[in-house]
Amino acid sequence: MRPHRIRAALLCGLALSAGTAAAAAQAGHGHSAAALEPPASAAAGHVSQPPPPMLDQPPSVVPEWIRTITGPPALSPEHPAALYADTAVGMFSAAVKGDPQLVYVPNSGESGMHGMNNSTNPDRNSVTVIDPRSFRIVGHFPVGGLPQHVTPSWDLKTLWADASGGNQLVPINPKTAKPGKPVPVDAPYNLYFTPDGSAALVMAERHNRIDVRDPHTMKLRESINAPCNGVNHADFSADGSYFLVTCEFSGHILKYDTKTFDLIDSIDLGPNSMPQDIRIGPDGRTFYVAALNQGGLIPLEGNSMDAKGMIPTGKGAHGIYPSRDGRLLYVSNRDEGSISVVDPAADKAIAKWRIPHGGSPDMGGVSADGTQLWLSGRDNDEVYCFSTKDGHLLARIRVGANPHGLAFFPQPGRYSLGHTGNFR
Fold first, then answer.
1. Which of 29, 68, 119, 282 is disulfide-compatible with 307, CB 3.0–4.6 A?
2. Burial of residue 165 (number of CB atoms within 10 Å: 0-12, 13-18, 19+)
3. pLDDT band at residue 44, thresholds of 50, 70 and 90?
4. CA-CA distances (angstroms) from residue 227 to 85, 212, 222, 289, 400?
5. How many domains is the chain partitioned into structurally?
6. Whose CA is closest to 180, among 127, 254, 237?
7. Secondary structure E strands in 323-421
């Protein structure tokens, strides 16, 4: 391994311009190892009150409050998906005791890639809070420009609204669902935490940079220039020794050492792949990359960094969420308004749920009891709630402009690795 400070010289062949995203797709998959803006006030500007909820049909599933346990259980070797053994129903950390189950929706005001609707809705740069039992809006507050995701902290005590345009992270108290004082952070498109909780990783997408920060104060420790274009999503290996990062615009997947933050490998999926979310599967070895332009998941063996074909899901494959038992992956197909249910053991999609009259499912998460899947409707200014039993739509709720990284909180798990709720 070479120190990250000389990565740029060694890996300059990977660096791509912003125009690379429009280039023709490359054949096959190839390996290679290769002035801050002032913070904006969260209260700046006028944010209109959200409209009342729109229920397409009466709720048929009302999740019950789930018992909070006082400590994490031991791993069960018999569990079919041991990687997610501590995120099963009822396995709450004591840290979330008393936290109300709520859905936090960042209204970004920005359509995603392939976006068909740059919303004119005046409710933007805000977070809408929904009660998942009644499907009604119970809270609303400004958080600054372009909030992209709501991210649970590693210790589960804080939610962070990632306001990338406002150059700030806004803390939210999950016990009260109220925001606190914004913390100046440059370009926080996405936020992750190392498995030991020692560092926060800010994906500064527009700078092609990963900023290593204190996980509590968010003070900058180190900046890593990523040799790709559009660094944005990540996930960690089963043992936590490395993590993989997707580069949306250049098509690369980067592999970093978690302790040293050295770049140790990479793979080029081609500029036409446009990789989005990435999640490690229940086998603890295979990562799944949502390829937006190719309409499916690319399985990637983490140790060898070998891509293993494609699992077709649907147009605009974007977000990936494990089922509560860890056996299945729910994939949001934003461009065709559907959800694919993928069985990693069978290496295929086994079901597809379509949104009546269309929609644009983006980011979100599974409910604490596993009976619901909540997703933002990026180009429709709405939120969707699906039954995970049969995939029918339980509710669609009007929110603000171009909602993005929705978070259902709390969920079972010992700690959060970031994004909208990647729990272990």
1. 29
2. buried
3. very low
4. 35, 16, 16, 19, 35
5. 1
6. 127
7. 329-333, 338-343, 348-354, 361-366, 372-377, 382-387, 393-398, 407-409
User: What are the structure tokens assigned to 53, written together?
Assistant: 């909820």
Domain assignment present for 8: no
The predicted-structure confidence for 226-261, as pLDDT tens digits, reads as follows 999 999 999 999 999 999 999 999 999 999 999 999
This prediction's pTM:
0.83
Distance from C-alpha of 89 to C-alpha of 86, rounded to nearest angstrom:
9
| Domain CATH number, residue 365 | 2.130.10.10
Which structure tokens are listed for 183? Answer: 């913390």
Amino acid sitting at position 121 = N
In a domain, 212, yes or no: yes
Q: Which domain holds residue 99?
A: 40-409
- 336 with 316: CB under 8 angstroms? yes
In a domain, residue 205? The reply is yes
Q: How far is CA 35 from the centre of its chain?
A: 27
Please return the burial class of 316, using the count of CB atoms within 10 Å of its CB with bins 0-12, 13-18 and 19+: buried
